[in-house]
Design goal:
Elements lengths: L4 E4 L33 H8 L4 E4 L5 E4 L2 H14 L1
Parallel strand pairs: 1-3
Antiparallel strand pairs: 2-3
Amino acid sequence: MRGACVHSAALPAQWPQPKECTLNTLLSARRSLPAAWRGLRDAKLSEVSGIPGCTFVHAGGFIGGCDTLEGVAEMARKALEIE
């Protein structure tokens, strides 16, 4: 199973800001982001996911982003519910 990571520009500066998340940096329960979100950006991604402020989900589903920390948490919650 591939790993997924979500990140937000809203994280405090002292927190690590990964440019890329690899399988080695993830917890043992790994999931890809939902197929319906993959390759989408901005308003279209927010519309499809139902989460405001989404910025992108990589076409491979292993990384995505949102403008707020709350949005990132919601992306993670929904991804766990969907897949």
